[in-house]
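Issue 218. Parser rejects a valid record. Input:
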Amino acid sequence: MSRLQLDPDLPETDDLLSLLLEDVPLLDVRAPVEFADGAFPHAVNAPLIDDAERHEIGKTYKDLGQDAAIELGLELVSGDRKAERIAAWRAFAQRHPDGVLYCFRGGLRSKTAQQWLAETGTTLPRVKGGYKALRRFLIDQLAENARIMRPVVIGGRTGVGKTRFIQTLRPHIDLEGLAWHRGSAFGRHATPQPPQITFENALSIALLKLVHRGNPWFAAEDESRNIGARHIPITFFEHFARAPVVVLEADLEERIDITLQEYVHDALAEYIEFSGAYDGFQQWADYLRDSLDRIRRRLGGANHQRITKLLNSALDRHERTGDTSQHRTWIAALLNDYYDAMYNYQLEKKADRIRFQGRRDEVKEYLLQHHDIC
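Output the parser choked on:
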């Protein structure tokens, strides 16, 4: 302990509400593996100790106690390694002079980072209680705010463009955007979904901001409990599932156009950006085939085989000629033979909650007049 002298007067903050409402930049000095398990919007990970160092220090703590673990940490993070980490924190502070830092509990790691920064003439407050306090605050706030929130659920058949429609409305919460998934068997993106905890944190913050802006009505897309591999917290979902429903309508050709844009043009562009033209196309084609295989049982063997042939034919033509028009055939079959029947069943269960049905402009007018959503 003698080698680590911490200034007890370095600033800390416990105003968690302001940190989250004002999107204060957050410097997370936890190890990367901790950050990957769950983080906050506007948080940047610049660890005091990396994953391997954390493992060694933890083992020493278990075997030899705290003092020995601290001494090992100081040995591991010294010289150039220490200088590099301090430089990363200073760069963050220069970009975000209003930022704060934290570790898991607001203890030794954040105090050490804060101390080393202060020794270079740079001061950042640390969060009292650290990540754990912020996370507990958001869990409690989500439960409290969900009880009083006022969502209007936007429903509609697959392909009517619910997500894009919601993104034009104010205020709204884009659940699929927060979960990074389009909410269907074909809904995954080229990059992974956020961890469950990160999704929950983002949802809680989005709702927190709405409630503190006067708790207005807001638009959100009709979702099941699961959005891809992420699930909506029950404290939110049990209230969301009782909200009024407004159904967005569009004819079949419009729905095919929208689905073609989202699942073909937009999705392929993501894969190409992530993996390059050739590999991106192959990965995107595999994603479509895998998505279709996931609903094989619900489609039935004959329908699955028929739509698979249509898909493969469209992919072949697309790859050879660049022509995407043939994708309309499998999309139309999928909408007719799978999604519409499923949606009819789901809509029947919500019949008592439906307040309005109409096309885009009609729904916009209704939302403006009845819920001040524009």
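Fixed in the parser; the record now loads. The chain has a mean pLDDT of 95.
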